[in-house]
Amino acid sequence: xxxxxxxxxxxxxxxxxxxxxxxxxxxxxxxxxxxxxxxxxxxxxxxxxxxxxxxxxxxxxxxxxxxxxxxxxxxxxxxxxxxxxxxxxxxxxxxxxxxxxxxxxxxxxxxxxxxxxxxxxxxxxxxxxxxxxxxxxxxxxxxxxxxxxxxxxxxxxxxxxxxxxxxxxxxxxxxxxxxxxxxxxxxxxxxxxxxxxxxxxxxxxxxxxxxxxxxxxxxxxxxxxxxxxxxxxxxxxxxxxxxxxxxxxxxxxxxxxxxxxxxxxxxxxxxxxxxxxxxxxxxxxxxxxxx
Length: 291
Known about the structure:
Elements: H1 2-45, H2 48-53, E1 57-58, E2 65-66, H3 69-99, H4 103-117, H5 121-139, H6 148-185, H7 189-200, H8 202-218, H9 221-226, H10 243-250, H11 259-288
Helix pairs in contact: 1-11, 3-6, 3-8, 4-6, 5-6, 6-7, 6-8, 8-11, 10-11
């Protein structure tokens, strides 16, 4: 009787999970289909090549220009800066949390990291505007402190918790498997971390990088406040614009059904394709590490 009841509960749980998975998949497919549908009209007026490789975005002029290369480069530039900041700091923090803190302190830090991950991005952007932008303007003789570097630093700080959370989860399991045997064999903690923990944790580290990059390239408000929002080719200490910021700034003023409106949806489609390509590249190298 108990086994039959347990089997029914398992079947019910499986059915619920299957339904939720199906519903999530259908929703995602609908979103992608809608973006694709709204993007097609712009490609009848502008070629895909010109839309992606052109450098002029001027949707309100008599001869409107719809090209998003500056926004593509701005998104990639700030995201890679963010990764260069968040990955080393995140891995270092994860090692410290897992191996150099007590159990009670470790759990407290994990809770704090989770809370930071939930902080609205506009808060990070506002702090970046008040601190970083002001610092660059006063100390680097810049006319305005908004720049790609400021955007990258803000994104880097925002994505550190993503890296920490993912890597700590992996390193905790590795620590439980190696700490006792390493202690018995007289292996030092630094040797264990360098030669055992980091190699075994590479998949968790890679997953953290993917999550951090995806978060960074899709971020809107924080970057919008500190990058300057100029549709020009990005420079480290110059203004630029990202695709999410472009969509957020102009979608409200774009007339529904206009070329401007469809161009913004096409920009979102390009962002999705970029994310897909970069994730495929990451997973390709991740699969290579399995051998």
